[in-house]
Amino acid sequence: MGWLPLVTGMPVIIGENYDVNGGIVNGSEGILKSVHYEIGENGQQHATSCIVTVPNSSGDLLPYLAPYDIAVLEETHNISITHPETKHSWTFQQRQLPILPAFAITDYKAQGKTLPVEG
Asked: CA-CA distances (angstroms) from residue 98 to 26, 47, 66, 71, 111?
């Protein structure tokens, strides 16, 4: 796909441990409140940060943010690959927000969660 559609109000899962003591950890669920974009040289938008409301968090309040709101910043990862025969190598850089849509989650991501019984 190459891009992640972000819509204000959508449920998301945090993909990193931001504040373990405050309950903002990998797998925390929240609601996307806002997204900040930069416009690249090619004219495309690139999400650089967002605000997520995490109702189960208990960390310190940040100035200018409502209670339970957290700022999520983009992360950069370098990915290197080497062709097995030619030994030619390439390095790519991936930048993205560490969040995922949470309309549905896999059993792997649900491990350790207490979920309501639907019947």
From this structure: 9, 11, 21, 11, 19
| Tokens coding 79 | 């990915």
Structure tokens at 62: 């940040």
Its pTM stands at 0.77
Task: Specify whether the CB–CB gap between 76 and 48 falls below 8 A.
Answer: no
- Per residue of the chain (119 residues), give pLDDT as tens: 467 788 999 999 998 888 888 888 888 899 999 999 999 889 888 899 999 999 988 877 788 899 999 999 999 999 999 999 999 999 999 888 999 998 876 666 555 555 566 66
Does residue 95 fall inside a structural domain? yes
Between the CA of residue 7 and those of 76, 101, 115, 116, what are the distances in Å? 22, 10, 25, 26
Total of domains in the chain: 1
Amino acid identity of residue 30, one-letter, is G
For residue 35, the enclosing domain spans 11-108
Whole-angstrom Cα Rg for the chain: 17
